[in-house]
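Lab notebook, bench 4. Still working through the backlog of constructs that have no structural model yet. Next entry is a single chain of 147 residues. Request: give me the structure tokens for it.
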Amino acid sequence: MTINFSRANASRNHVARYTAFASQEVILDATVFLDFVDPQVQPGVTAGELELYEKRFFRPTGKSHGRPAGTPSPEQSRGPSNPLETEEYVSRSVNLSRAYDNLAEGYSKEAGDANLQSDNYILLTVLFSIVLLLEGISSKFRNQAIG
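Model written out:
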């Protein structure tokens, strides 16, 4: 029981850590995406820089997650305004955080079940010892024959 509570707490610590990592990744990805959009507008960007941005923010089909310069606005296209709003964008840390959260929930449930089982065992043990005590006390009384 205690081990499962400890495992659940350790898993929750991992959840907090990976949630912080995910937040940092989103900030980094947003910064990189803004750096991608900016060179699209300004001249003097090397082909290598654009290729690096395209690898990060373009799907294998060649469609962009975001809205490079000259494309219709989200209101016109009804698409996401940036890659961080797409369903495909999920950081590895978010997935790890969710996995550890599910693991922590499982350990908590197991610990709760074990706690209930031990409480029931203690209750039955106490009741049994009370029955034995009362039986021992009653055996010391003298029985008088009626009749």
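Notes after review: The chain has four helices and no strands. The helical segments are 2-41, 47-57, 74-77, 92-138. Flag for follow-up if needed.
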